[in-house]
Amino acid sequence: MGGRMGVVRRGSDVTSHVSSSGKSGVAPCLQHFSVIRSIGRGAFGKVCIVQERKTKKYFALKYMNKRRCIEKGVAANVIRELTLLSKISHPFIVNLWYTFQDPDYMYMVSDLLLGGDLRYHLSQQGKFAEDRAKLYLCEICLAVEYLHEMKIVHRDIKPENILLDEQGHAHLTDLNLATQLEDDQLATSYSGTRPYMAPEIYATYLELEDGYDSRVDWWALGVCFYEMLRGRTPFEFSSRTKPEEAYVAFRESSIPYPAHWTTDLIHFINTVLKFDKEKRLVGLDSIKKHAYLERIDFKSVFERKPAPVFIPCKEGLNCDPMYELEERILVSTPIHRRRTNHNNSSGRSSSEPQNAALVEVSKAFIDFSRHNVKIEPNGFCRSN
């Protein structure tokens, strides 16, 4: 969804990774929040800053139109994403706090992040200093390793899906394409964003391999790290590039490196971006031991002790200024009107198949409150 922001605010008036408000016995609903402003929009709905009336904490509220999701065939993806998010909790992932629904919309309330995504910052600055990029790399490595421990493969790691908080720390978001794989199970769908998809995803599509596993996420993170440092991806593709052409490019092309890059840095990227997945550098334990990162104290990184080199601007939104202009002049139905008119709108005429699908989506929807789960030491969320 366009314009997604990045910042978990820390303090008494805003949400942090661990809530202090305690367990809630009341199911969340739209009336429990005050809408502050819109900060993003997409094909199926918008993202707003909201304030929880009871706790006065701020969150991001994403709401999606059920009928549009059904028409576009993405309703199952939304339900799967909510299911996965309801099971996890991590300091470098944008965490889910609540979900609820009404006849027309699905709502998800998450950590509020206003520091901008890395795509926006790359567009503004071209590339990042190495120390800055290395901290982002380490923080997202921790998030990816955690997802893999939970048997979740993200499948869409890219700068747009890495958000900054107001201190400048990185957070991984958007599990819309994520899947959960059991041991020795392979994924087979052609999923991801082209410049960041690993060779084995293309190979599976071309029926050269039976499937792929979590190693595709380490490849994607390697592409992101290279792009942070150079301002371009290591392999250039256009919208016209065919899967077989991309696969050949991975197999036969060499990655270009600036002359001033160190041997350790080049070797690190080369091993993370190995065409042969069996020889690829994957997993946090192996990455920690590489010469390029062996001096990094990952426990300290997990505890957010290293000070980020870059602090996002706190004035205004860290997003494309054209989007901010559009938000000021765009006339649309305010979200708060749905508190009184959603019952009327749900009665409009529609086809029987779509109405049946709407009923199924409503039944499959997961109602969730983070206050009603116990977060175990491994980060797994279990219902109380």
TrEMBL record:
<dbReference type="GO" id="GO:0004703">
    <property type="term" value="F:G protein-coupled receptor kinase activity"/>
</dbReference>
<dbReference type="GO" id="GO:0005524">
    <property type="term" value="F:ATP binding"/>
</dbReference>
<dbReference type="InterPro" id="IPR011009">
    <property type="entry name" value="Kinase-like_dom_sf"/>
</dbReference>
<keyword id="KW-0418">Kinase</keyword>
<dbReference type="GO" id="GO:0007186">
    <property type="term" value="P:G protein-coupled receptor signaling pathway"/>
</dbReference>
<feature type="region of interest" description="Disordered">
    <location>
        <begin position="1"/>
        <end position="20"/>
    </location>
</feature>
<dbReference type="InterPro" id="IPR008271">
    <property type="entry name" value="Ser/Thr_kinase_AS"/>
</dbReference>
<comment type="similarity">
    <text>Belongs to the protein kinase superfamily.</text>
</comment>
<keyword id="KW-0723">Serine/threonine-protein kinase</keyword>
<protein>
    <submittedName>
        <fullName>Protein kinase domain-containing protein</fullName>
    </submittedName>
</protein>
<keyword id="KW-0547">Nucleotide-binding</keyword>
<feature type="binding site">
    <location>
        <position position="62"/>
    </location>
    <ligand>
        <name>ATP</name>
    </ligand>
</feature>
<keyword id="KW-0808">Transferase</keyword>
<dbReference type="InterPro" id="IPR017441">
    <property type="entry name" value="Protein_kinase_ATP_BS"/>
</dbReference>
<dbReference type="GO" id="GO:0001664">
    <property type="term" value="F:G protein-coupled receptor binding"/>
</dbReference>
<keyword id="KW-0067">ATP-binding</keyword>
<feature type="domain" description="Protein kinase">
    <location>
        <begin position="33"/>
        <end position="293"/>
    </location>
</feature>
<dbReference type="Pfam" id="PF00069">
    <property type="entry name" value="Pkinase"/>
</dbReference>
<dbReference type="InterPro" id="IPR000719">
    <property type="entry name" value="Prot_kinase_dom"/>
</dbReference>
<dbReference type="GO" id="GO:0009966">
    <property type="term" value="P:regulation of signal transduction"/>
</dbReference>
